[in-house]
Amino acid sequence: MNNRSLSQVKYSILDLATVTEGHTAADSFHSSLLLAKQAETLGYSRYWFAEHHNMASVASSATSLLIGYIAGNTQTIRVGSGGIMLPNHAPLIVAEQFGTLASLYPGRIDLGLGRAPGSDQLTSRAIRGLNMQAAYHFPDDVQQLQTFFSASNSHAALRAIPGEGLDIPIWILGSSTDSARLAAKMGLPYAFASHFAPAEFMRAIKIYRDNFQPSAQLKVPYVLACVNVVMADTDAEALRLATSQQQMFAGIVTGQRQPLQPPVNDMSSIWNDMIEASVNQMLQYAFFGGVDSVRKKLEAFLAASGVDEIMATSYIYDQEARRYSCQLFAGLFQ
What are the GO MF terms of this UniProt record (predicted)? Predict the structure, then answer.
């Protein structure tokens, strides 16, 4: 599909402030900052947090607060949301929060928006109250955010201060073709969650590109793909480290969620054939291995998808191993 090399695409990180077994949310925030500082020195373009709720392994629920924490302790890397689940929030509040972040850290804040709840139905009801149909208003809410950020809104009765007149790039996040059509229609960059919803990835990005309408923010389509990455010195060690993620996804499949578990040498006692098949389907775009094998798989992925940016998310129990994986991944693009 394209002849670009890895050195011609941007590389970034998605973080869920993963809580590991035996550690606390506070520990995960400290680990995130160490990783973000390392990513900045290694040339990563952006560091995003994802909004999730009521999950024992995920501490990124107060997403905008973590963005401020990372942006305030780094210098140049872009920091943002991958994403804010917009139906959980009033657009005005999001505009004010991200207007505050962009005022504090100008030119460094991204606002990625999703329409999923980032939680189960019980939690969604607790967050949204009577506003359970909010997802259906997602396109209108995105437009309202754009209005709040525009300088031309300065004479309106309802204004976002801070936020008004600031350059805060909006991204549409998605895991289906619906989001692709919306991103194309609005002329916004498109970030696809291929790290857990790979089934419609290729079809969605084709729809996005085929239907893209240029906007004030973006003249040509721009696709970011999030993928799972675990790298180590050898394939065998990377595959062992990746069993932590396999255990986490098995917990998602079975509804038995817990903090990220240490790696194991054998998964056979943890899952059956049906759970393994479900996990492997979710992990279609998983790049686990040493430098040579991951490079070959990533080059094939880039050739097939033609994405403009690859965002890595890495569920690794040992934080030194996680940072080493981050280092090895950056080396593929340099």
Answer: oxidoreductase activity, acting on paired donors, with incorporation or reduction of molecular oxygen
